Amino acid sequence: MIINLFSKALETPQTLPEPLIKANRLFIGNMESILIFQMNALKFYLDIGINQLRAAAEITDLASLQDFCKRQAEIAQTVQRKLMNDARIMSDMTARFKTEMDHLTQATLEEALPKAA
Predict the structure, then answer these.
(1) Is the residue at 86 inside a domain?
(2) Do the beta carbons of residue 105 and residue 74 sit within 8 Å?
(3) 73 in a structural domain
(4) Where are the alpha helices (DSSP H) in the chain?
């Protein structure tokens, strides 16, 4: 039954409304940007974690342990700055997407309302 539904839909070629096509493209472009950003951020955090594990494995005496502990504050500050910057970037990306969708919606309404009247 579902196969018949899709077959019938494919038999009669129809085009999607232009605003829907634009919204889909905008959504996909935004999702792609966000995913690329998140993958790069994840790599950064994983690299820090792996480097920390390697540094911990190099501890052989009290002096190297003290050195390792001293570096933890610097690394924590680096991670904190990166997290704050990443949150700001994600917020900016979301705001930009919202603005673009608002413009698309407004343009679609301005085009559709005179036709409806």
Answers:
(1) yes
(2) no
(3) yes
(4) 2-11, 18-57, 62-116
43 touches 37 (CB < 8 A): no
Q: Which amino acid is at 90?
A: M
Sign of CA dihedral 13, 19, 24, 28: positive
User: Residue 1 pLDDT more than 60?
Assistant: no
- Dihedral sign, CA of 24, 27, 30, 32? negative
Report if residue 82 sits inside a domain.
yes
* Rounded average pLDDT over 5-18: 69
| Of 107, 113, 117, nearest in space to 23 by CA | 107
CB 55 within 8 A of CB 71: yes
- On the question of pLDDT at 5 being above 90, the answer is no
Residue 82: band (very low, low, confident or very high) from pLDDT cuts 50, 70, 90: very high
Q: Nearest 5°: CA angle at 21, between 24 and 7?
A: 100
Task: Extract long-range pairs of 110-117: CB within 8 Å, 24+ residues apart.
Answer: none
Exposure of 3 in the CB half-sphere (CA atoms within 13 A): 0
